[in-house]
Amino acid sequence: MTSFNTIDDLDAEQRVLVRLDLNSPVDDGEVQDNRRFSRHAETVRELAEAGHRVVLMAHQGRPGNDTFVSLDQHAEIMAGHIDRDVGFVDDIYGEKALDAIDALESGDVLLLENTRMSDDELPEEAPEVKSETEFVQSLAPHFDAYINDAYSAAHRKHASLVGFPLVLPAFAGRVMETEYEANTAIANREFDGQVTMVVGGTKATDVIGVMNTLGDKIDTFCLGGIASHLFLRAAGYDIGYDRHEDLDLYDTQWENNEEIIRELYEERRDQIKLPEGLAYEDDDGERAEHDNADLDAANYDYMDISEETVDNYDPIIRDSDAVFLKGALGVFEDEKFSAGTVGAVKAIAETDCFSVVGGGDTSRSIEMYGMDETDFDHVSIAGGAYIRALTGDDLPGIELLIDAAQ
């Protein structure tokens, strides 16, 4: 049971301001359609079909980056997903935008320009500060309600995310609702059997945070990715060192977290499953593997867990009542090094358990390797917000929705 209001609680035919997260890859100036459009389309379609006047806000890239582009293409992509026109205005809260908003009729959908083209948007500041910005003060009087559907950006204190809930009735969209419920399930639900977390990715701090926060709720942590190399180092193996000066993946993380990694490994050794070996690319460009005893961090880039490790993790996953996956176990984009990530995801898909898959781009492996999202209870489109939910950190966008409901 969520503690914020959802779009089910809206009065009829409102003028609603809806924050989405449509941040997408951009290839040669062309915005790529992706899972975020299809997910948010459910909220947008439902609001339009209910007769609301729907105005959408979203961001794309950051100033100075190649992905920092207008949202005109996003409007076209969203229109294809909801099977109705989506208007676009190259303005955020100026006269052009306000005139277009006021001209909307029941069921109309309008997308405003990239929120990050406003100087008020990006600086991380208190909601009280953001609510007083020209951005918020100009738009708010033209709406009956604010809807936040951007769960994946809920950890940000940007104007479009935290300013409006202080000046308008605030509600959660469908993505916000389902992501929040799934990603907090590990803390809020009781499971009858074993609970397993498969943890990969590149950030040791993510693994440390999860173990510190959820260690008493998780029976087994199956480690992969760069974080597993650092825990292997704590276990005494020759791994977890940078080979390339321009890739600071290991040394700084070890320097900043050595003490806590060693403590966690000793305290939770019975819960932590480490790789039995790691895979690398040999001189012929083929996959090869080293057992832990033969690891040589000075001469090899290790890019996946070993096949033996995949086999060891498989029964742990299949015997679980709940499995949460965060982060890739290897460089799955290269098929040679997909065994760890794909093996874990397939085992989860084939197991009758409560399952949540998320963290950065990990969910892409599902489509890339021919699996179906319906085989999982939830596939998260969030990265930073997903890990914050798992580690119990505040998500300002959600806290404000809860406050608004109260």
Topology (elements, then pairings):
Blueprint: E1 15-19, E2 26-27, E3 30-31, H1 35-49, E4 53-57, H2 72-82, E5 87-88, H3 95-102, E6 109-111, H4 127-130, H5 134-139, E7 145-148, H6 159-163, E8 170-172, H7 174-183, H8 185-188, E9 194-199, H9 204-214, E10 220-223, H10 225-234, H11 251-267, E11 272-273, E12 277-281, E13 287-291, E14 304-305, H12 307-318, E15 320-326, H13 339-349, E16 354-358, H14 364-368, E17 378-379, H15 384-391, H16 396-405
Helix pairs in contact: 1-2, 9-11, 12-13
Total separate domains: 2
The N- and C-terminal alpha carbons lie at a distance of: 15 Å
Q: What is the name of the CATH architecture of the largest domain?
A: 3-Layer(aba) Sandwich
Number of DSSP E strands: 17
Radius of gyration: 23 Å
Largest sheet: 6 strands, parallel
Which overall shape is indicated by the principal axes computed on the Cα atoms? elongated
What is the level 1 CATH name of the largest domain? Alpha Beta
Mean pLDDT: 95
Task: Walk me through the structure.
36% of the residues lie in helices and 16% in strands. By secondary structure, the protein is of the alpha/beta class. The strands form 4 sheets. It has a 6-stranded parallel sheet with strand order 5-6-4-1-7-8. Strands 11-10-9-15-16-17 form a 6-stranded parallel sheet, with helices on both faces. It has helices at 35-49, 72-82, 95-102, 127-130, 134-139, 159-163, 174-183, 185-188, 204-214, 225-234, 251-267, 307-318, 339-349, 364-368, 384-391, 396-405; strands at 15-19, 26-27, 30-31, 53-57, 87-88, 109-111, 145-148, 170-172, 194-199, 220-223, 272-273, 277-281, 287-291, 304-305, 320-326, 354-358, 378-379. It contains 16 helices and 17 strands. The chain starts with 14 loop residues before the first strand and ends with a helix. The protein has 2 domains: 7-180 and 395-405, Rossmann fold; 190-375, Phosphoglycerate kinase, N-terminal domain (Rossmann fold, 3-Layer(aba) Sandwich). Helix 1 packs across helix 2, helix 9 packs parallel to helix 11 (251-267) and helix 12 packs parallel to helix 13 (339-349).
